[in-house]
Amino acid sequence: MTANLYHTTMSQQKLCPHCSLWSPWNGHIDDKCLHCSEYLKLAERIDQEEKEQKRRKLEFNFRERFPLSIKADDPWWIKGSKQAIYAVYFVFMSIMVTILWIVFWLAT
Ligand SMILES: [Zn+2]
């Protein structure tokens, strides 16, 4: 096998991490092996899923942490104040989350 042919093969096929057979690959993370139907980029998929879960956790916490929840029986002026505080809080937390994101993506 020449170097050039090897390169061509590499760009069109991928060695399946599950059954160790070569399978056609279009460059997508969701492409599956022809032989065993396992994901060709299984490790990358798991990695991406873990990152996604961490990201969701981050977003979830950020909404849950808001100390002033708006109740249905609050007077209109309390609702208004809480909404105003929430708007400020939302902007502030968005900035915080963005910073966390950058730190998070740099760390992984
Ligand atoms: Zn396979």
What is this entry, summarized?
The protein has 108 residues and is mainly alpha-helical. The protein has helices at residues 3-12, 42-64, 76-107, and strands at residues 13-15, 22-24. Strands 1-2 form a two-stranded antiparallel ribbon.
Q: What is the tally of helical segments?
A: 3
Structural class: mainly alpha
Mean pLDDT value: 82
Provide the helix percentage.
Answer: 55-70%
Name the shape in a single word. Answer: elongated
Q: Count the strands?
A: 2
- How far apart the termini lie comes to 37 Å
Major sheet details: 2 strands, antiparallel
Characterize the quaternary organization of these chains: single chain
Bound molecules: zinc ion
- Poorly predicted runs are 1-5
> What percent of residues are in strands?
5-15%
SSE pattern: HEEHH
Give a description of the structure.
The protein is mainly alpha-helical. It has 2 domains: 40 residues, no CATH class; 64 residues, no CATH class. 60% of the residues lie in helices and 6% in strands. It contains 3 helices and 2 strands, in the order αββαα. Strands 1-2 form a two-stranded antiparallel ribbon. The protein binds zinc ion (ZN). Zinc ion binds next to loops. The site of zinc ion has 8 residues, from loops.
How would the blueprint of this fold be written?
Layout: H1 3-12, E1 13-15, E2 22-24, H2 42-64, H3 76-107
Antiparallel strand pairs: 1-2
